[in-house]
Please model this.
Amino acid sequence: MNRQAYLNTIESVIAGGPYKDDWDSLSGRQMPEWMYRGKFGIFIHWGAYAVPAFANEWYPRNMYMQGSPEFEHHVKTWGEHKNFGYKDFVPLFTAPKFDAGKWAALFEKAGAKYVVPVAEHHDGFQMYKSELSHWNAFEMGPRRDVLGELNAEFSRRGLVPCASSHRVEHWFFLGHGKEFDSDVREPLKLGDFYWPSMPEGDHQDMFSKPEPTAEFLEDWLLRCCEIVDNYKPKLFYFDWWIQHSAVRPYLKKFAAYYYNRAAEWGEDVTISYKHDAFAFGTATVDVERGKFAQAKPFRWQTDTAIARNSWCWTENNTFKPADSLVRDLVDIVSKNGVLLLNVGPKADGTISDEDIAVLSSIGEWMRVNGEAIYDTTVWRMAGEGPTQTKEGQFTDGEDTQFTPEDIRFTTRGKHLYATFLQWPKDGNGHIRSLGVQDASHLPVFAGIVEDVDILGYGKPVWTRDADGLHVSMPGIETTMPVVVRVTLG
Model:
C-alpha cells in the first residue's frame, strides 16, 4: 500500500464530507436506532493469544514481564523467550475447526442483534486481510480473512456486522521484551510485528511519556480506516488507551473519516468509547465490565464477558451463570443501555461447551421474553426494590444478589413490562409503583391497567390497590427473571 496516498485520501474525504475533524462538527450524534432497538450484541476476542490459553488475553504482554506468572509459565511450557517468543504462537494458530457459519448461528440463537469481532488486539496481529502488515490472519496462522468471513455470515443472518480495534495499546504492549534477552530485539521498524515495543507508562496518565509518535499514529489511523473501507462495520469499538492526549488529533480524523464514509453508504453508524476519549455527544459511551446505577438520558453500552477472569479462552476460565447475565441485560436495558457480551473461542476455532450453554440459555429466555427487551424504551423510572446496583467499571466481579422486590421496567406501545429479577418463591409478586390513586395516595402511575399476563406462563390472578399491583401465580420455578406484561388502557 502507498501509505502517503491513503493518508491523502483520508484528508480528502474529511475535507469533502459533512463531518470535519473537530468536536463541534462531530457533535449531535447518538447510538443508532438499529443498535438501540436490538439491545444485545456479541463481542469476540480471538487471536494468537488463544494458543497458550493461560491467564488472559494480556498474555503477550505479561509473558515478557520477568517474575510474572505468565513469564514463569512461558519458560516452563514453551522455553526461553529468546528461542520461543510470542510470534512463535502464530504458526500454531491454524484454527482448523473455525466455521463462521456455526458461530453466526449460535449468536443468532442466543438472541443477539449485532456482533463485534476484535479485528486487532493489543498484540498487533490483524484478524483480517490487510495491505499494511504481513502479520495478519489471511497471510499467517489460519490463512483466512476471519473478519470478512464472519461479517459475511452475520449479514446473511440479519446480524449487524461490526468491528473493534485495540491497536493503539500496541505502542507499549510488548515493550517489556526489551528488558532482557528475548526475541523482542532492536532494531524494530514500521511493519515489524513487535514494532514499536516502547516503555510502558501510567495507563491513566493522558500525558505519559514516551508518547506515541506521528509515525505510529499515522499507521494506527491507516489500519482503522482500512477496516472501515474494506468491511464497512456499523459499530467501531475502541478500547481505553485512545484517551491519551497524543492520540486525540488522529481520533478526530478517524471519526470524521468514518462518519463521512458512512454518509456515503447511507448507513447510521457509531463509535463506542471509554474514559471520555470522545467529546460527549460525538459517539457512544461504553462502560467496561460495569453499568450505571440509575437510568441515563443518553443511550449507552456495557461491554462485559461470559468469563469472569478473561476476555479470551483460557484453560481456567470461570463462567458467569446465564441467569445472572440475563438479570444484567434487563437492568441495563431499563436504564437506557445495551449489552455487548463477549465470548472467547478456542485456538482451534471452536467455542467451548460452557460458552455455548450460557448463550443457549440466554437465547431460550429471549425467545419467550424478548418483547420486554427488543424495541423497548425506558419508562418514567428504571425500577423499584431495595438492592443498589454498583456503578462504574469493573464492578461485575460478583453477581448482585437481587430480591423478589427488585423489579425493572421497560415499555413499548400499550405494554409496560415489569421484570422480576427474582420471582417470589410463594408466587405472589408485588409491583408497588403501579398502585392506584386514592385520597391519601398519589401513585407513580395513575393510568388504567386493562390486563396482566406473565410471559411464558399465562394469566395470573391480579388485583390493584393503593399498595400496588398484586400478581399471583404459584408454581413458577425458575432462577431466571420473570416478565409481567401489563396492558394499559
